Amino acid sequence: MSVDSYFHRISIVGLGLVGGSWGLALRSHGFQGVRIGSDRPEVLKRAVAVDAIDEAREDVADAVCDADLVILATGVGGILDQLPHLSRAVSHRALVTDVGSTKRLICQRAREVFDKEPMFLGGHPLAGKESSGIENAEGSLFENAFYALTLLSPDHLADERVQAFFGLVQSAGARPFVTDPTAHDRAVAYLSHLPQLLSSGLASLIAEQSDEEFLPLELAASGFRDVTRLAESPYALWRDICLTNIENIQAALEALIQKLEGMKMHLSDRELEREFKRALQLRERLRGAQRPD
User: Fold this and answer.
1) Nearest alpha carbon to residue 34 among 80, 2, 67
2) Which of 75, 92, 172, 223 is the most buried (most CB within 10 A)?
């Protein structure tokens, strides 16, 4: 079954970086159905101008009522707020999915309000960049990226709506990766949320030092710029992520603090060399894991 034969009308609620990129990816990869977008008027105007959507509807219920697929692409807090309302607004035949960076609370809320009609499938594209908004959306954003998918029930994997969405993810260039919501949130605490806080914390520290100790930023080379690239991400996006994954993030921060304390103690002996070797081995594993098939 082709994607177009199942999903004829796709509604995207939230047309920022990820939602806008979904709209652009659908068109650039040959989707022939109708793309409906819901957001603020100024965002909808921009989305239509860049051909990220075909129809613009400010009211969410109106945007999703006749959709075969609904993609919730707001922040995590917005997704949690929208789920109870969407369960009453969407068609019984529809599939509802999201792009939230945390999954446990979203899937828990979805389990409370959804059954099989309509069906919910948790989603998290492991792709993005530090710049947000429809103006930064790209049709190629998901290419060669893993796309985490969290099922509310194992038997949902056989549902034709879920299978059709797997095909849609693949057609956008991404690689589906099925995982448990709890395992997902622990993993991203270390692999996504910790790097963000490390980058923002380091940039904040240097901002303080440059003000108080006259630290010359002219000496900041590419390494510092690379490590602090994520510090450009907006707090509004990360507030809800931190609030919905706080225990895992706290554990990750504690582990990092212990690691840094250990490195501080071994600055003058060979144990520091072992840390560098472990780090290099991980980088080599990452290069292999991210290489396209």
Assistant:
1) 67
2) 172
Tens of pLDDT, residues 191-212: 999 999 999 999 999 999 987 7
pTM of the predicted model, to two decimals? Answer: 0.90
Looking at domain 3-179, which CATH architecture does it have?
3-Layer(aba) Sandwich (3.40)
Instruction: Please report, as a single letter, which amino acid is at residue 78.
Output: G
The CB density around residue 55, as the number of other CB atoms within 10 Å, is 14
Span 31-70, pLDDT tens digits: 999 999 999 999 999 999 999 999 999 999 999 999 999 9
The residues of the chain that CATH labels 3.40.50.720 are 3-179
Buried b (16+ CB within 10 A) or exposed e, 100-115: bbbbbbbbebbeeebe
CB 60 within 8 A of CB 78: no
